[in-house]
Fold this protein.
Amino acid sequence: MPIIVTLDVMLALRKVRSKDLAERVGITEANLSLLKQGRVKGVRFETLAAICAELQCQPGDLLRFVPDEPAPPGSKT
């Protein structure tokens, strides 16, 4: 997937536990864990804004775009 979630890095930099962030933002620890692992198809802007406010960061500090590498010529995908 070309979107990489770096929430775990920001949590470490801010020395905030996932449990505490989930409580402050108003989401379950399970949903925060799925977000950290990049296993969600989307995130509400309201949730993203709350996370950024708590961690004092920008959305770009939590998300990176890494384009997929094109398949080599002649390979089957």
About this structure: The chain has one domain: 3-65. The helical segments are 7-14, 18-25, 29-36, 45-55, 59-62. The mean pLDDT is 93. The longest helix spans residues 45-55.
